[in-house]
Structures are given as structure tokens and as C-alpha cells.
Design goal:
There is one protein chain. By secondary structure, the protein is α+β, with helices and mostly antiparallel strands. The chain has a single domain, classed as 2-Layer Sandwich (GMP Synthetase, Chain A, domain 3), CATH 3.30.300.130. The chain has three helices and three strands; from the N terminus they run αββαβα. It has a three-stranded mixed beta sheet, covered by helices on one side. Strand 2, helix 2 and strand 3 form a beta-alpha-beta unit. The longest helix is centred in the N-terminal third of the chain and has 10 residues. The radius of gyration is 14 Å and the shape is globular.
């Protein structure tokens, strides 16, 4: 989900990503974006946002609350339209989803 260098910079998308980075997993002190919990992020021309996300485990203690937390935080971005969150567990999350920043934070590299 991280922006490869060949994709043009989009300030609105970056604002949404910044909002996602303000939401933290309760069990791992890393934000959900750098944890790799965001599988897809789509923004249409009306700034409606669709997010496909997962959790570290289906038994996550905030499984019921996390999508609402994400929706609330993304909705705060100036100019955002509707926000739709879809939760999936396919494919299951694993440590390979971690960003380089998260790996450093967790002492894995």
C-alpha cells in the first residue's frame, strides 16, 4: 500500500494516509498504515474514500470498533466526502505487511 516513487504525489491522498497513521493498533504500538492493515485505498473525484482493511487477527479485541475509529479519523480530513470501510481477513495479515518504519520501530531491522 505504500506509495512507490513512480506514482505522482497527491496531497489529498497523503492527508488521508496521515489520518490513517493517527489510528493505532491497541496491541502493537504502531499505526495501522505502517502495520500494513490497509489493503486498498481508493479516492474518487468527489473525495469519497473507500478503504479495504484487515486486523492483525480476527480475534483482535477492537475488531468491532476499529472500522469506526478509522472512519471517524478519515472523516476529519478537510474536503473528504463519504468514507466507506470494508473489513476483510483474506489474505490474513502477517509480519511481511509491516512497513520499513514499523520494522525499525519494532526492532526487527
Amino acid at each position: 500500500m505504500h506509495n512507490p516513487s513512480n506514482i505522482p504525489y497527491n496531497p489529498f491522498k497523503q492527508a488521508v494516509i496521515d489520518a490513517l497513521r493517527r489510528v493505532f493498533d491497541p496491541e502493537i504500538p504502531i499505526n495501522i498504515y505502517d502495520l500494513g492493515l490497509i489493503y486498498d485505498l481508493k479516492i474518487d473525484t468527489d473525495h469519497n474514500v473507500e478503504i479495504l482493511m484487515t486486523l492483525t487477527t480476527p480475534n483482535c479485541p477492537v475488531a468491532e470498533d476499529m472500522p469506526g475509529m478509522v472512519q471517524e479519523e478519515v472523516s476529519r480530513v478537510e474536503g473528504v466526502g463519504k468514507v466507506r470501510i470494508e473489513l476483510t481477513f483474506e489474505p490474513p495479515w502477517d509480519m511481511a505487511n509491516l512497513s520499513e518504519e514499523a520494522k525499525v520501530e519494532l526492532g526487527l531491522i
